[in-house]
Amino acid sequence: MSPAPCRRKSDRSLLLPLFVMGCRRPAPSRGTRPRIQGGSARMCRSRAPRQNHRLSVHCHRFLRSWHMRVLIAAFAHTSHFHGLVPLAGALRAAGHDVRVASQPGFVDSITGAGLTAVPVGEDHRLLEAMQQKGAEIQRYSANIDLSHPEVFDWDYVFNLFDLSVPYFYSVINDESFVRELVGYARQWQPDLVLWEPYTFAGAIAARACGAAHARLMGASDLNAYFRRAFLERLRERPAGQRPDPLRDWLAGAAEQYGVAYDEELVVGQWTVDMLPERFRLDLSLPTVPVRYVPYNGRTVVPDWLKTAATRRRVCLTTGSTGTSFTADPAVFHRYLQVLAQIDAEIVVTTDAAALREVGPLPKNVRAVGFAPLDVLLESCSAVIHHGGFGTWSTALYHGVPQVMVPHVWDTLLRAQQTAAEGAGLYLREGAVSAEGLRDSVARVLAEPSFLNQARRLRDEARAESSPQDVVPVLEELTGRHRDVRTAASTAQVPVA
Question: So what's the pLDDT on residue 49?
Fold first, then answer.
């Protein structure tokens, strides 16, 4: 389980047979390189990705183009949903029917993105579950350091799944959600189901109606990483002492609809991955890479962002999870006073009223309740954040150096990777002083190498295949699945 650099020589595309017989590859061009990757289970580190085996859709006359029904299954969570909107839009623009299934309370977010919503089940009660067991779950889901895989022994991985199943997975995929999603899939008959990585109901629904299905990954794939670690530890256990909480729950949910359990219900037939190649965990899973495109929901550019900044600008955003030093307004206020010693405008996306109740803010601190991050970061010289995928990816997209205070799930991994690439710094959550944060930001602003490396990573990230470029690949993979299914059905028809 020890992470190691990816062996790019082993990368091969499953689409290679489609591009033989008279299709000449054009010269590589940015943004036109969709491919499906597989490889050894290794962690990508700081090495420039190889350009070999990246196939251009300029030869798409060899790919089938046909009308698809695409059902996207995503539990109600704003940041998880925002990442998948650009691909959904690209599928619609290509002429496909796209519908998004989620809990009823999330309908406005879906329709606000210009997509068709399918409310299924009841609104989940994840917040209540986290209030009950959140602290215990964080013992296994916070400060995860893959550079020390020896920590992930049987007790660790078992407890991770033993807590995640009853207090997370089964809460957002409750009985009503699975039942109604399967019912709708059987009625609408989608050709392809794309599912958010925790929305396992999407995989069950796809299998129940015969559709192709894939995870739409907007994070570092710790789900598959820890599943593989769990299965390895499980095989080492004595016979009769091999409990598997995820399998037991998922198999029970699936069998009600005639679906037999296998690991495909956990990882999908393939994964559409928005993480740039350099940062991906290579876990030998079929992968369709796609460029991350920022989407912040329905937003309006505020007046103060309509004109160019008159001085350097630093954004401080805490995302939906926050950090220890931002939880208490009084403590956060002191941090801002120290940060204001930097010669820059400090823009804070937080509750401005709560901060002002503590006391007046320094003149160079602008507290705003909300600002569209995609618009804000293009004007920034640095960003301070918690390491969440949306903020991290948007900063990467704009080539902005990052100072991260990671804590939960995959945030520490990306912070370590970004720092190793020289595009930012990270500080351990819970051990961040106001002065240490100020000095880190000052260093990122003063040393040109951080900006240079951030721009290099920006160029690499933007060279990934765009959502529009990936659509023909999804059409082809879905068509292959349909062909196999049709052939299997034909083979079962008795000959008179």
Answer: 41
Residue recorded with tokens 């296998």: 262
- Reported as a single tens digit per residue, the pLDDT across 330-373 is 888 999 999 999 999 999 998 788 888 889 999 999 999 888 99
pLDDT at 30 over 50: no
Q: What are the tens digits of pLDDT across the range 301-333?
A: 999 999 998 999 999 997 655 555 677 888 889
For CA atoms 411, 168, 284, 41, give the dihedral sign. Answer: positive
Measured CA angle at 493 (ends 491, 496), to 5 deg = 120
Residue 12: both structure tokens together: 């091969």
Strand blocks (E) in 170-289: 192-195, 212-217, 270-273, 281-282, 287-289
Rounded to whole angstroms, the Cα distance separating 54 from 426 reads 33
| Phi, psi (deg, nearest 5) at residue 345 | -85, 125
pLDDT band of residue 465 (cuts 50, 70, 90) is: very high
> Residues 451, 382: contact at Cβ < 8 Å?
no
CA atoms within 13 A on the CB side of 132: 11
- 15, 53 Cβ separation under 8 angstroms: no
Q: How many C-alpha atoms does 419 have within 13 Å on its Cβ side?
A: 17
- Cα–Cα dist 290/471, whole Å: 10
Give CA–CA dist 485/17, Å, rounded: 20
Task: Give the range among 99-108, 136-145, 202-211 with minimum mean pLDDT.
Answer: 136-145
Token couple for 174: 């409750």
